[in-house]
Each structure stands twice: as C-alpha cells, then as structure tokens.
Write a structure and sequence with these properties.
Layout lengths: L1 H5 L14 H12 L12 H17 L23 H6 L14 H5 L5 H12 L5 H16 L1 H12 L4 H5 L2
Helix pairs in contact: 2-3
Length: about 170
C-alpha cells in the first residue's frame, strides 16, 4: 500500500505471538500496575489488546526507561470526519503535494505558541468535527478571542513562557 511504502523505514515487523491477546492484556495490567481491566470498561477488547501490544513494543524498544503513560481513551470516530491518508495528502493539510511544510493549510493557520497547542491544532485538522453544536462551540471560542484582542494577546504572551507540560508529565 501507499502508506506502507511511505513508512517502510519506520515499520518493524513482529512475530504473531507479539499480538497474543492474553499476553498483551497481561503486559497492559503489569505496566499500569492493575490487577484487573475492569476500570478500562471504556475500551473494547481489541482496543485493550492494541494498548497491551503498544506496551509490549515499548518494553521491547525502551529498555532503559519506559515512558509514563496515561490510561488509553477510546475515541468515538462518529464525532469526527474520517480523513484517510490520500485525502489528507491531496488537501495539503500538513504538507504540500511536493512534500513541503510551507504552503500547507497547517503552515498558513498555525499561530500556536506552545507545543501542546501545536499538537492540538494538528489533531483538530486531522479529525474535523461533525456535530454542529461542537463546531459552534469551537467557533464561539474563536470569535471571543477575535473580539477581545487585548485579552487574546495577554494569553498568547503568557503561553509563550509555558513549557511543554504534556511532555514534562510523560517523563
């Protein structure tokens, strides 16, 4: 596939036992130091298994120190427009057709001041909302900042001095 070709150097094959459900769930429980997955009711069995496989991969590749992770959360994709790789590429959301960042939608609208804000903007672009009320809520926030430029600028200046909280917490 096109994606496999593009990420060939980053893809590592694993033996099928790596994806064993019982092993994955056991690794998940060990990593989060929990006796049961009862608290993970928001995850279906495949999501739980996939989370365990990620933990297994981290254990295999991050031998010195495992990163600190929050419990996984299930995302209901019914709330978002699903954009496939080809659509994202053709719409030049993150890169132009020529592979450049400059000229992409992201490069034109990205005025973020923090790494966390940049990640959130990328997420918003990759997963556009479907629900009219959620879209209106987001637009109301944007409108408020546009109507209050002094408060907006003060907040932007404050955010410039904030470190990457999300990354710091994951250490």
């Amino acid at each position: 596939s096109e994606i496999a070709k593009e990420f060939r150097s980053a893809i590592t094959t694993q033996v099928s036992s790596f994806f064993d459900e019982k092993k994955a769930v056991r690794n998940f429980k060990d990593f989060f130091d929990i006796a049961t997955t009862e608290a993970m009711r928001n995850l279906n069995s495949l999501e739980l298994q996939a989370s365990g496989v990620v933990v297994s991969y981290l254990k295999a590749t991050q031998k010195e120190q495992l990163p600190r992770l929050d419990y996984p959360k299930s995302v209901n994709m019914k709330n978002y427009v699903e954009l496939d790789h080809t659509t994202i590429k053709n719409l030049e959301i993150f890169k132009t057709i020529g592979g450049e960042n400059k000229g992409s939608l992201l490069s034109v609208i990205d005025k973020t001041k923090t790494n966390g804000g940049a990640r959130l903007l990328r997420q918003f672009l990759a997963m556009p909302l479907i629900d009219k009320a959620a879209i209106s809520e987001r637009l109301n926030i944007v409108e408020w900042f546009n109507k209050n430029p002094v408060a907006s600028e003060k907040l932007r200046n404050l955010l410039e001095s904030v470190g990457d909280i999300e990354r710091s917490l994951s250490r």
